[in-house]
């Protein structure tokens, strides 16, 4: 397991626990784009079922994961 995967698993676990206390529903992030599309980090997050919130041509791409519908 890589470092990024480990951080994502920890974040998911914390958000899932908090959801029963304070109503946390989504994990939201801004994905940094790469000029080389094959090196885009979007592919990493899609493996974990993150969805694109709003398609953009430039800048960071917002993505989200609904923790109630996932896993």
Show the helix and strand layout.
Elements: H1 3-22, E1 26-31, H2 42-46, E2 51-52, E3 61-66
Antiparallel strand pairs: 1-3, 2-3
List descriptors.
71 residues, alpha+beta, three-stranded antiparallel sheet, 2 helices, 3 strands
Question: What's the helical proportion of residues?
Answer: 25-40%
Tell me, rounded to a whole number, the average pLDDT.
Answer: 87
By DSSP, the count of extended strands is 3
Classification by helices and strands = alpha+beta
Spell out the helices and strands N to C: HEHEE
Q: Give, in spatial order, the strands making up the sheet with the most strands.
A: 1-3-2
Please state the CA-atom Rg, rounded to the nearest Å.
13 Å
Number of domains: 1
> Major sheet: size, sense and barrel closure?
3 strands, antiparallel
Shape: globular
Intertermini distance: 18 Å
SS strand fraction? 15-25%
Number of helices: 2
Low-confidence stretches: none
């Amino acid at each position: 397991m890589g470092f990024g995967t480990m951080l994502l698993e920890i974040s998911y676990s914390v958000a899932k626990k908090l959801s029963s206390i304070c109503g946390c529903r989504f994990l939201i992030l801004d994905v940094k784009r790469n000029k080389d599309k094959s090196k885009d980090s979007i592919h990493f997050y899609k493996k974990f079922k993150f969805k694109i919130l709003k398609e953009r041509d430039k800048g960071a791409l917002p993505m989200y994961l609904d923790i109630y519908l996932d896993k």
